[in-house]
């Protein structure tokens, strides 16, 4: 597709994972923990087109469980801690890791959608905010 050229995937996903606009990398993407701003305050790129839906949550669960299960088994085999200490420590670890990963994965999803021009992130050029206020 010739119209898909010009939007590199890796930088857009990295910017998104850092919570920044996938277009300019300067403006914030999130107005809250997971609430996506309607547009970038720096470059004016519209971000309301995103359709991350449940994808980030599923990927977060997949990553946390695949990291936690082998670690749980290794800790148990090496140290034989009590069941209660394992339950508390791994529950807290899973919660904290999930809360840390979820916004980064959602930002990466949105960066991917922007780079691939999915769900309305099409060819239309965005108007910078400076040009709108003039």
Automatic annotation (TrEMBL):
InterPro entries: DUF983. It comes from the Bacteria. Keywords: Membrane, Metal-binding, Transmembrane, Transmembrane helix, Zinc, Zinc-finger. Pfam families: DUF983 (PF06170). The chain crosses the membrane at residues 57-77, 83-102. GO terms for molecular function: zinc ion binding. The keyword Zinc applies. This is Zinc-finger protein. It comes from Paracoccus halophilus.
């Amino acid at each position: 597709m010739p119209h898909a050229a010009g939007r590199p995937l890796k930088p857009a996903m990295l910017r998104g994972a850092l919570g920044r606009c996938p277009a300019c990398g300067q403006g914030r993407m999130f107005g809250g923990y997971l609430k996506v701003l309607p547009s970038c305050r720096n470059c004016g790129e519209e971000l309301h087109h995103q359709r991350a839906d449940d994808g980030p949550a599923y990927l977060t669960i997949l990553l946390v469980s695949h990291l936690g299960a082998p670690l749980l088994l290794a800790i148990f085999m090496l140290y034989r801690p009590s069941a209660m200490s394992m339950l508390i420590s791994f529950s807290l670890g899973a919660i904290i890791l999930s809360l840390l990963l979820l916004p980064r994965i959602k930002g990466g999803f949105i960066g991917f959608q922007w780079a691939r021009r999915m769900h309305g992130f099409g060819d239309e050029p965005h108007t910078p905010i400076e040009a709108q206020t003039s």
